[in-house]
Amino acid sequence: MGSRNDTGLKVEDALVLEVLAATASEWQPGLRIGRKAGVSAGLVYPPLARLERLGAIASKWEKGDSGQKPRRVYRITGAGQRIAGEAMERPRDRPRLRFPGLGFPEGQMA
Fold first, then answer.
1. Whole-prediction pTM value?
2. CA-wise closest residue to 8 among 91, 71, 93
3. Distance CA 39, CA 45 (A)
4. Is residue 5 assigned to a domain?
5. Is residue 97 in a domain?
6. What's the burial of 95, exposed, middle or buried (CB within 10 Å: 0-12/13-18/19+)?
7. Could you report the per-residue pLDDT of 31-68, keeping only the tens digit for each?
8. C-beta atoms surrounding 86 within 10 Å
9. Which of 60, 99, 51, 56 is nearest to 76 (CA)?
10. Are 55 and 83 in contact (CB under 8 A)?
């Protein structure tokens, strides 16, 4: 991974953004995002950091349940929705098309 598409995003950034666009109202932990995006646990955090620096996503700390450590959770922003929309307009910018409801073929769900 690591190649860039026409929007200037790395492929893994686009995959992470795609997951967050599909669940725009939900705050999600990085591991869940990585699992849905097909990005390994150790490789999901650099794309999350890049996307947050771009203003495409926001993060916050969420208190853990009794005895659990706080965890960072992420959600797409309005700017991220616009970036995701632009990427979806360009077929070669969609490395894997998985999410129904966003104009993606249903047979390609992860």
1. 0.73
2. 93
3. 10
4. no
5. yes
6. middle
7. 999 999 998 888 999 999 999 999 999 999 998 777 78
8. 13
9. 56
10. no
Q: How many helices (H) and strands (E) does the chain have?
A: 4, 3
86 vs 3: CA distance, rounded Å: 18
Structure tokens at 70: 């706080």
Domain that holds residue 86: 11-108
What are the tokens at 21?
Answer: 């666009």
| Per-residue tokens: 99 | 């999410």
Report the amino acid identity of residue 107. G
Of the CA atoms within 13 Å of residue 41, those in its CB half-sphere come to 3
Instruction: Kindly state whether residue 25 falls inside one of the protein's structural domains.
Output: yes
Mean pLDDT of the chain: 79
Task: Measure Cα distances from 66 to 59, 61, 62, 63, 100 in Å.
Answer: 22, 15, 12, 9, 36
Tokens of 51: 């996307």
